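Workshop exercise sheet. Pairs work together: one partner reads the sequence aloud, the other fills in the structure field after running the prediction. Swap roles for the next sheet.
Pair: D.N. / O.F.
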Amino acid sequence: MKKIAVIGCGNMASAVVRAMYRGQKVKNEFLTYTPSHTRAVELAKEVEGKAIVDLEEACDADYFLIGCKPQQFEELAKSLKSMDLSKKVIISIMAGIDQEKICRLLNTTKVIRLMPSLPMEYSEGICLLSSSKNVEVDELDFIKMLLSDSSLILKMSTEELFDQVTIVSASGPAFVYYFMNTLEDSLKDWGLGSVESRAIVSQLFRGSAKSALINCESELDDLIGKVTSKRGVTIEAIESFKDNGVDAFVRMGIDKAILRSAQLRES
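Structure field:
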């Protein structure tokens, strides 16, 4: 049995902990902490853990999952100064905070950066991993084991690549929901109800994603070609997207997100 301290119990951290709880082969102990205590208590109940009121209560934990916002990390590090974390494994889900900074501020050498995606709540997530060289193979394998039922797990070769891929793998669901919302609004404008509109759009994305996975040897442009026909209805929309620079706007948004990640890393 391992003891996992969870510092910060926001939406993403809670999703990760719930996934770990579901994926455990033997029962582990979860200690949850938030300054307000409220969300820590709620999460502890869900994973049969214990909500703690003082960080010192987590001093004998094997793993520390840091789930605070990146902007709060330096203040949190000060709160942990009195604790010896040199032999602990730190799991960070903070965007833009690299291993070097985490090691330096927490006085440790074992850091696993983990970037989940929210669909892990439904066993359809993506989880990126990047670890410092002092993390043992069995320590990394333990985390992979906990999350393998909920996510596709991919280890990134560099932290730069980790930060870049994060924009698609972890931020991506928001991009998908944004486009889904546009389609859903159109259906509602035409008179369909909310339930029907959501069902159509959700099945559209689910079916299309499954088709793309099954036909992974095909280029996506080829799959578009299978749906469109010359001078047909669908190609009119596709050509309009291209003429209005939808591709460029999407790339621009991704570049803005990467820039923000770099700003967090440098701050």
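Discussion prompt: The mean pLDDT is 95. What would you look at next?
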